[in-house]
Description:
Layout: H1 21-30, E1 35-39, E2 42-45, H2 46-62, E3 70-74, H3 79-90, E4 95-98, H4 105-114, E5 117-123, H5 127-136, E6 142-146, E7 166-167, H6 168-173, E8 190-195, E9 205-209, H7 210-223, E10 231-233, H8 241-244, H9 246-249, E11 256-258, H10 265-275, E12 279-282, H11 284-291, E13 305-309, H12 316-324, E14 327-335, E15 340-344, H13 356-363, E16 368-369, E17 373-380, E18 385-386, E19 395-401, E20 407-408, H14 412-418, E21 424-432, E22 438-443, E23 448-450, E24 453-455, H15 457-465, E25 470-480, E26 484-493, H16 501-509, E27 520-523, H17 536-545
Parallel strand pairs: 1-11, 3-4, 3-5, 4-8, 5-6, 6-7, 10-11, 10-12, 12-13, 13-14, 26-27
Antiparallel strand pairs: 1-2, 8-9, 9-20, 14-15, 15-16, 17-18, 17-19, 19-21, 21-22, 23-24, 25-26
Helix pairs in contact: 1-2, 2-3, 4-5
Amino acid sequence: MTIYDEGLDRSAANFQPMTPISYLQRAALTFPDHPAVIHGKQRHSYAQLWSDCCRLASALTRRGIGRGDTVSVMLSNTPPMIHAHFGVPMANGAVLHSINTRSDPASIAFQLDHAESRILIVDREFSETAAKALANAKAAPLVIDFDDSEYPEDAPHPKGEPIGSLDYAAFLTEGDPDFAPGKPQDEWDAIALNYTSGTTGNPKGVVCHHRGAALMAMNSAIHAGLGKHPVYLWTLPMFHCNGWCFTWAVPVQAGTHVCLRWVRADAIYDAIADHGVTHLSGAPIVMSTLLNAPEHQKRSFSRTVAFNTAAAPPPETVLHAMANAGFDVTHVYGLTETYGPAVVNEWNDAWNKLPADQRATRKARQGVRYLSLDDLSVMDPETMQPVPADGQTLGEVMFRGNAVMKGYLKNPAATADAFAGGWFHSGDLAVMHPDGYIQLKDRSKDIIISGGENISSIEVEEQLYRHPDVMLCAVVAMPSEKWGESPCAFVELREGRDLTESDLIAHCRSGLAGFKCPARVVFGPLPKTSTGKIQKFALRAQAADL
């Protein structure tokens, strides 16, 4: 014990658990009349948003929901989803479980049972799927329907029939708008549960805590450049890693949430032009949607809009096209287990003076750690030693710090494996550059071993993306009698473009060693997840049949 330990204990006066709930409370106190949510014709001030979240927390509490109880939601990017991110943990420590709205009934049923869901709030767009899931689940949560009055008339399908015993609007009226929200007993308490989209077996439940959510919300505000009163357009599903924590980050700067049910080019351009959108996020497919929209759907806007993207690094041609269209793209990287993005390609202005090919090389890197991530490394998973920072030696990306999950729900073995050696093992293969920036080369399961040589599918994809006619592509391993495995490319072309397999293979040979070039090229739509990620497991199955 030192002199700095004597009589200097924690108390209620000098230590309170960190939680993002306080961000909304502050915004409502400081800017009560500022617009917090835009949803169709609806406008909700911060005072109203806080009141609605208090009502939800109060109504949940009156139904017996409290610390450690799971409240599941199957909602689109609508006001109730924002309510849930605050109102559920405000219910004396309940835990929010956001369901991927494109999940199949069997997966949803598993999640409801595994999470021991007490309540399920369902948008009527997803009633049919939710009903099938409930029929197969052992859990019997109280089901609440959300009937969206702003449901578009030109929707691809009508709303489903109610399947619950309560309507969401009616449920809110049960709550007290002056409810005193419960804070977490400990900042280590769980705030959210998100299931990974496993390709085999049941998904794993990633548990996040209040401290991590609070810190990552501030990180998102800083690294995304959320200035005072930003206007954030929800092109990213809020169920995906809690919307990369932007659900909690927007109130940090008393910003405005602009809800968007579906990612459609005309709706995005309208929102940017009409509401003064400053920021949005999404997978590369969102950029393709914007760039390839018909001219009559595009709208002009005077400001530059910040666009955060993850997954594969955007090709230089796409970055150039996005800049010309008025978007400033920032590349980020992370996993569900790290609350979404926890690494950012922090751009050095001096690099703007570099030749185009060298700028593209730097833009292809994932980058450096977020502020609240204690450490980021590329390590040999066998020796747990960092690989040389030479930009060539392959290792596994590992994380350590407050931006890492508590662990996997009811899965101590998987948690122990993920945290072996005191680091979170991502399963992603990368190199470390001399300046401390990491660059992904592949998922460990996606590396192609051809004739004993390792081939990075990302490297082959980057070369394919350099062809101006390629809109989307993915490269996977294809069985080969001679080499064991060979690269197989799946490609979506831009509308109206026509390429042959030999054309693209020749293009790859112009920039890659011969053994790295695709042995086959398959043209057609690529299977994607609800967040726009290409489903390589499905492509591997197709390649096996080839």
